[in-house]
Amino acid sequence: MHGRSRTFRLYRPARLSLSTPVPLVVMLHGALGSGRQAETTYGWNAMADRHGFVVAYPDGLNRSWAVSPDCCGSPARDGVDDVAFIAETVATVSARLPVDPDRIYATGISNGGMLAYRLACDTTTFAAIGVVAGTLLGPCPTPAPISLLHIHGTADGVIPYDGRPGVLDNRGAGPLPVRINGGPVSDQIDRWRELARCPTPEVRTTGVVTSSLARCPDGRDVDLITVAGAGHQWPGATQPIAERLLGLDPPSTALTATESIWTFFDAHPRVV
């Protein structure tokens, strides 16, 4: 692609029937991650086995995604078009398998969640996105009609819930730029709800998990789930030894994000 070799992993359940079109989930790893790491960490293969869909795990160049001129890492510095790469990934999978064009979804954590937001803003491919510990960077004035589920821990130090600069933020300076200036998560969700003409959300709290659910016109929903005290992690994930050695936040056990996101996706085909 544009002189670069790009890769992704593809999981197809062994017993998946291809006699009818099937959903596709694109799982976007975070910075320092990879498609293989995402496949082994977040439980999407088991979910695909249970519910009958395929999963693509793309690889970011140098383990990062370009989501703005200042984020993140060498792909942002070099102007990599990761939105185009993900679109080509979807096209490649759709050429091999009978993918339902009305049930294509993107989900990601951290830098991968940022890319999921850019896909919602810059393409018309996806029916819904699921973002974990991410944020929207850059303009998004007229996104395609899409449903959104955002999951975030209130103690996230990398992409803080209140929008202040995180511990990795270098203001986009140097050879590996990281500037995360998306603002408070709640403000972002309010903007998406305004664009979708959503009514006042229903809010309910169970333990440390608070769900703010907005049932919007035309079958669109914009939902926010916060986990009090949770850090920068994917709730319910397994934590590889390498992540523990790096001192990264352990995944919350108060929620299984993969199950929550798939349930949301399953209820939200493309809005016509």
- Assembly type of the shown chains? single chain
Number of helices: 8
Strands side by side in the biggest sheet: 1-3-2-4-5-6-9-8-7
The radius of gyration computed from the alpha-carbon positions, rounded to a whole number of angstroms, is 17 Å
Give the terminus-to-terminus CA distance. 31 Å
The main sheet comes to: 9 strands, mixed
Q: Helical amount among residues, as a percent range?
A: 25-40%
The total strand number stands at 9
How is this structure best described in words?
The structure is a single chain. Helix content is 27%, strand content 21%. The chain is an alpha/beta fold and 272 residues long. The protein has a 9-stranded mixed β-sheet with strand order 1-3-2-4-5-6-9-8-7, sandwiched between helices. The model has no long low-confidence stretch (mean pLDDT 94).
Describe the structure concisely for a colleague:
This protein has 272 residues and is an alpha/beta fold. It has eight helices and nine strands.
